[in-house]
């Protein structure tokens, strides 16, 4: 599956699933744009991409800042001349319950990263994707398809993301642009640490136990699905919600 001559933007490429996606595209010859805020982690992923494939462009940017989103698109086009694939992967989670003092603040914070930023990036990238007949892969979650205790904000943002993706798939199909989501179950990344939780083993065990296959995925498994959906092999796939959840939904 070669992505030579393809330009791919991956948000949240400094960690976990996004880092694996970026490295897989680099291995397949793509010009990859890494987006994240943690410079040390971005530098680490840059080195791995260079070692295994192509030299990426790393952009230190916050996807919730309007000027940063514009800079991501402008810098990509200035550097590589085009955009073929947009992977909206940056995401955060939280366990704030309904009805607490901090609920609405937390709702805005998660919504800004998981949904508003995707809409904004899609809006600015679309003219370039139409030119290349490119495609978008949005990293959603199995949490868009069922509720999880205390994760209603996260679940709601991912459900919104799924529906937006279907709407865009319909709207952009006539322009030759495909849009799909990948909806993982548990994947071993820094997501729990980044939620500010300390008892990480407890949460991974909980999530593992909620899967039919009794396992947690490696980020590379999600990258494999993303590369398939972004490739010519998936030329007939648009508007799909591609679940890779170790059987969470069937348990
Ligand atoms: N791990 C799982 O079990 C799981 C399951 C289903 C879905 N997902 C989804 O997979 C995606 C990746 O999550 P992960 O598990 O790989 O988590 P992670 O290791 O915590 O990585 C999250 C990434 O998002 C980036 N990010 C967060 N806020 C950002 C912002 N404002 N601007 C720019 N980048 C931002 C982070 O970059 P910086 O820290 O450098 O800013 C980091 O690269 C998320 O959308 C998540 O909802 C994960």
Automatic annotation (TrEMBL):
<dbReference type="GO" id="GO:0016491">
    <property type="term" value="F:oxidoreductase activity"/>
</dbReference>
<dbReference type="InterPro" id="IPR020904">
    <property type="entry name" value="Sc_DH/Rdtase_CS"/>
</dbReference>
<dbReference type="Pfam" id="PF13561">
    <property type="entry name" value="adh_short_C2"/>
</dbReference>
<keyword id="KW-0560">Oxidoreductase</keyword>
<protein>
    <submittedName>
        <fullName>(diamondback moth) hypothetical protein</fullName>
    </submittedName>
</protein>
<dbReference type="InterPro" id="IPR036291">
    <property type="entry name" value="NAD(P)-bd_dom_sf"/>
</dbReference>
<dbReference type="InterPro" id="IPR002347">
    <property type="entry name" value="SDR_fam"/>
</dbReference>
């Amino acid at each position: 599956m070669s992505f030579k001559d393809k330009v791919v933007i991956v948000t949240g490429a400094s960690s976990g699933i996004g880092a694996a996606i970026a490295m897989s595209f680099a291995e397949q010859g793509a010009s990859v744009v890494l987006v994240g805020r943690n410079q040390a982690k971005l530098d680490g992923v840059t080195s791995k991409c260079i070692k295994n494939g192509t030299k990426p462009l790393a952009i230190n940017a916050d996807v919730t800042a309007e000027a940063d989103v514009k800079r991501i698109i402008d810098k990509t086009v200035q550097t590589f001349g085009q955009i073929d694939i947009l992977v909206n992967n940056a995401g955060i989670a939280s366990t704030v319950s309904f009805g607490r003092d901090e609920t609405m603040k937390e709702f805005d914070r998660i919504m800004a990263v998981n949904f508003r930023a995707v809409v904004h990036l899609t809006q600015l990238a679309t003219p370039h994707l139409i030119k290349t007949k490119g495609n978008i892969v949005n990293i959603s979650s199995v949490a868009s398809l069922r509720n999880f205790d205390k994760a209603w904000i996260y679940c709601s943002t991912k459900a919104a993301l799924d529906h937006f993706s279907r709407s865009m798939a319909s709207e952009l199909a006539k322009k030759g642009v495909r849009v799909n989501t990948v909806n993982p179950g548990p994947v071993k990344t820094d997501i729990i640490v980044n939620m500010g939780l300390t008892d990480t083993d407890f949460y991974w065990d909980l999530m593992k136990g909620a899967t039919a296959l009794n396992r947690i995925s490696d980020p590379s498994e999600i990258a494999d699905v993303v590369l398939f959906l972004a490739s010519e092999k998936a030329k007939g796939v648009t508007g799909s919600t591609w679940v890779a959840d170790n059987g969470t939904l069937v348990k």
